[in-house]
């Protein structure tokens, strides 16, 4: 009996040490990324507008927000003859199609009760555009609730002229001050933009698509096909393209304003869908990326695998914290954080992690009143833990949950709001 007990103690100790090594590695890795994201590399931008764009929007019952977006897109600082606006009114039962057409978009109506969701709608619309007699250099994808900075296509034109094939733009917030939820949700995206996406761009590794503000070259999409039907179709296409060796780049000045959920429960439902989708995509692509990383000896594949590993990392870290609560287990494993890591080292890391968000918001000139959301930000972040566990349990469910958008404002209101915040 003592032999069996000793054996299980050894196994438990090995598991706990492995978990701690993993926590230390990933924490320090993202700590390093955050430091790298503090600066911006100089970029050449003196390219003439030469690329032709097909702007595509998938909309399901978006009559509240579709017209302001189309009107905004028609007024971009880019030659109007070099881009067209396409909207797929997907399974709509309201006036989305009518209002989009009235605002000046080319509208396709799609009805399909079995293949539901944004991924299927986009694939259907891409096929329609490929069948047209005219061709484009790239597709640009927005959500119906977005508004877009006028220089957006100019920034994407620069990236395409430099040879990039897939580009993600900066995800800003359309309604950061509506509620404490929209404030903290906006902070999460602002920090991701600066500390993760910009850092990856600085390192020359692959960024990740974020569902909107995406640019995909015409030839890449035609060659690879869309084929992204998961609950996180953006992440799925990112990893699919990366497996084929096509990385995603970053355009920090190509800004799209996205509507954030107003209530905490609404944000939880949206994040649960993201968690389900990420676990699903991780199961299909994480190992492939690790193998490709070893074969080609390129860090960007390992970085992508680490990104996909995040839900599992959260669950593993939660298990470790739970074990800490049961003090009677502590004699049975080596605690690296107490026995081998100097307390001052972790205090420095913890202090820096606390300061990094403030620096990142300052560097991207986020309005000062947004900083109040940092008080509630830990609530938002820790709420991810149960959401990820539920998302993992429901990872095989593919039912699309539509987020209702109601924040109907114009691009000029966004600009005026930014001027007031700056002054």
Q: What's the alpha carbon Rg, rounded to whole Å?
A: 23 Å
Q: Helix proportion of residues, in percent?
A: 40-55%
CATH topology: Spore Coat Polysaccharide Biosynthesis Protein SpsA, Chain A
Gross morphology: globular
Write up what this structure looks like.
- By secondary structure, the chain is α/β, with parallel strands linked by helices.
- The chain has one domain: Spore Coat Polysaccharide Biosynthesis Protein SpsA, Chain A (Alpha-Beta Complex).
- It has 16 helices and 8 strands.
- An 8-stranded mixed beta sheet has the order 3-2-1-4-7-6-8-5, with helices on both faces.
- Helix 6 packs across helix 13 and helix 11 packs across helix 15.
What key phrases describe this protein's structure?
8 strands, alpha/beta, Spore Coat Polysaccharide Biosynthesis Protein SpsA, Chain A, globular, 8-stranded mixed beta sheet
Give a nutshell description of this structure:
This protein is an alpha/beta fold.
List the helices and strands and how they pair.
Elements: H1 2-36, E1 53-59, H2 66-74, E2 83-90, H3 96-103, E3 106-110, H4 118-130, E4 138-143, E5 147-148, H5 152-161, E6 166-173, H6 180-203, E7 214-217, H7 218-224, H8 233-243, E8 248-258, H9 264-296, H10 299-308, H11 310-325, H12 336-339, H13 343-363, H14 377-382, H15 384-393, H16 411-422
Parallel strand pairs: 1-2, 1-4, 2-3, 6-8
Antiparallel strand pairs: 4-7, 5-8, 6-7
Helix pairs in contact: 1-6, 1-11, 2-3, 6-13, 8-9, 9-10, 9-15, 11-15
